[in-house]
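Ticket closed. Logging final result for DUF6545 domain-containing protein.
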Amino acid sequence: MTFSFHVPYAVPTVLLAAALLLKLPTFLRAWRDPEVLATTLLLFWATSALVVIIPVNIKRLNELTGVPNIAAPWAYSFLTASCATGLTMIMRWREAPSPRRRRRIRRIYWTYAGIIAALWVTFVLADAPQERIYDLDTYYASTPWMREHILLYLVAHVASCLTAVYMLWKWFHEVENPWLKTGVVLLQIGFASGLVFDAAKLTAVTARWCGADWDWLSTKAAPPFALTEAALVAVGFIIPQAGPALKRLARDQREYLRLRRLHHALRVLEPAAAATRFGLWIPLDLRLLQRQQRIHDALRLLNPYFDVELYRTVYIQAAHAQTEAKARAIAGAVTVRDAIASYKAGRTRRIPQPPQISIHINEHLSAISTELYRPGALDCIRQRATTTESLNTHA
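Final structure:
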């Protein structure tokens, strides 16, 4: 056994294990959600199957238990469990909740649980004293009960892959969500790879029955397709759930960073209430919500200091060369900076401020925060606006 031979097993195993670890926090928060539970179980079964079939782990498990080839029923059980979970997840995606769907899902679980039980029964009844790490399926292809053991897992796997490919093919043209469609495509390729794996294995086993030696189909040709299936099926089930979540995370991250300058500028105001402190592990959406709340609280305190005329003048001047949204952002940034300066100096406006200015500012918080990164440009804009206003007044 060489290290390079194990690399093809290690790469998808590490990827699946990483996906499982990333899924665990969601599972701990929402383990009652059937889709979250099914996804986590699928990743666990697939990862476990790949961990067991790594040649060095097969040998370790056999030595640890003292039972030659005990890794076979473990690996085949995990593979069968992942097949059942995959089929039920496709059903959950395709069909609305109903008593019929629940019955079909329950039937699949019971059927595959029976297959797993039969795998262990046939292994116990079989006589397989010679440890086979690479060619167990073909070496024991004609051994009583071991023959049934091998055929049982292969037939169960063929049935699940055929059913999955058929359901996904029928469903493909109905899917509109891009994330879900990507997942469906990956699942189709993954389960099709599983069928190639089964074909290679069954051909090699049949050749043994006929007295021929086509073991290379089982030991060399089939494993890459099994590894491809495991990786693509896992990714295919994860993408429709992780894709939108990652998109929301990226959006929240951009918004959180864009509000940073405005949040920092408003820290000079005393908060209305004691701020809740969040740790480093608090989800980003909660930290974004806290930042937005602090900004809104500070702007309410700044409301008496807003100069409406300054806002209008800057907006009118900026609107000549900018879009409305950009002009609103520039006017808001100039007005907020002016209000903060008035707050520090203790100057308040005697005339009550109309609510429109606060509404405009609250509608463009991110853009205003971005404009605050250009203090020199804002000073020039304010100076031009006040100079223009003074000239118009004198005229």
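The radius of gyration is 32 Å. No further action required.
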